[in-house]
Amino acid sequence: MGSKHLVKTAMTNAKYIGRFAPSPTGTLHFGSLVCALASFLDARHQSGRWLLRIEDIDPPREIAGSTTTILRQLSDHGLSWDGEILYQSTRTEAYREAIAALQSADIAYNCDCPRQRLTALGGIYDGHCRQRKVIEKPAIRLQVPTESGARESEATIRFDDLIMGHYIQNLCSEIGDFIIQRRDLLFSYQLAVAVDDQFQNISHIIRGVDLIYSTPRQIYLQKCLTSLSGDKPPTLTYGHLPMAINAEGQKLSKQNHAAALEVGKESQNLWLALQWLGQQPPDQLKNEPINRILDWAIDNWSISRISKQLSIPAPDQY
Ligand code: GLU
Ligand code: ZN
Known about the structure:
Elements: E1 17-20, H1 30-45, E2 49-54, H2 66-76, E3 86-87, H3 92-104, E4 108-111, H4 115-121, E5 139-142, E6 156-161, E7 165-170, H5 171-175, E8 178-181, H6 189-199, E9 204-208, H7 215-229, E10 237-241, E11 243-245, H8 266-276, H9 290-300, E12 311-313
Parallel strand pairs: 1-2, 2-3, 9-10, 11-12
Antiparallel strand pairs: 4-5, 5-8, 6-7
Helix pairs in contact: 1-8, 1-9, 6-7, 8-9
The chain binds glutamic acid and zinc ion.
């Protein structure tokens, strides 16, 4: 037998773990398809893993059946994920433990400020409850570092975004102590994402730029959580994509009736999404089967071709 014959094996890059993390508050539209596709392609181009996490921690906002539809839409577009799906609704014990650890380290505290007081503060919490030792039916806040002295404080969080470039936010002056568990006992998005990105060893996050304002909070939460558990803080790589907007300039969303992704048009959808992402797919790819399109897109993926604009109009039909 020819000993030179090489079996082509799929090599995986153990260092790259990406994810797509939709909330089941509606089905995927063009804007969510480009997020899913970009994070998938960035992972596959680097032979990384691509995980799927369903962010079902806010039951009142959920729309029945949307998880099933999202999974079908991803499969129909050939976006196959690795391993088991992680459902955040199964993770309450982990969130509770994280909060308990933050509270025993005195980084998190109970807050019972009435809504009226919070409204009057205009968004940035003033730390009123830090020392109050509130017991009854509280929300829980994470204490952000305070500004001190001449040295740049720990409150300043910076990162280099793969698409948007350098991003800087001061947690003290721009955000303030923020909610990690709500008064209605629901866990906050920030907490659940930080805990789960760490749990799943996520290395790369590609998502919409509407979330870039949350990223410093998530970086800081992960730093707090890892320092309490004695782990090394993870260094995540972020890429925030422009938002897809409609003709009125609004971000595509369920609320403003973004068109559903048309079934049977998967090849065209992928082609349009690639075009939108600046990847310049050849015309003749438009009518090819999805796997041909994805193979081309994985080989030719270049994140630097994505526009740095904050928003880009969606194609006319979407
Ligand atoms: N679940 C969030 C959403 O659907 C996205 C979370 C994330 O990518 O960090 O908007
Ligand atoms: Zn308070």
